[in-house]
Amino acid sequence: MADVCTVVVRWAPGTPTRILALRDELVGREFDDPGRWWPEHPDLVGGRDGVAGGTWCATHVGSGVTALVLNRPQKPTAEPGAPSRGVLPLLAVEHGPDWPAAIRTEGMASFLLVLAGPDGLTTWDSDGGRTVRTDHPEGTWMVTSGGPEDRKADTFLPLFTAAGYPDGWRELVRSAPPRDDPGALLVRHEQDGRVFATVFGELIDARPGRLALEYSRRPWLGPWQPLAVG
Fold first, then answer.
1. Beta carbons of 152 and 160 less than 8 angstroms apart
2. Which InterPro entries does UniProt cross-reference here (predicted)?
């Protein structure tokens, strides 16, 4: 499964969509940096999970639309035969708001899907059965994987709202090194010899036909690698 755990989105009509995506995962799980990894989706750019082959975040360069998937706590394990949540961003950027018609989500593990682009910001929150769609007005928004992680928005959303993009957002990440606290912006937790931590961060500036992306596997330290497409 490929997912992010914290997403900040700033959007307004007629302006580029700005996104920060922080991926929390088991340390040691392999993944590829953002690129064009899917021949069947030639206009998509995103990181590729090394286990399931899906993605936590994908951008359709032509439309300027980005989709991201986050875990949610209600149903952590999918039923046998259900699709991986990592396929959802690929479908969402190809089909837009009509993506639910392209896949059966019943039986999947719970998720929050974010779709952000020049026409708006929409989220779909699924408990593994029922899915609720929400359309968000323009502004700066933060979503997380839920539960105790929702405390992040109380602390950090006002800071991201006030900060400029990208330098201010990058500085907020740099000033928040990983902590063993689900309410921290970046996390690191060790249990039974396994380490779960923030393993990737990316900053996205997207408009139709142009994508400017920078990413880091240690976002609190850098360096941030640039990638421009279009």
1. no
2. TANGO2
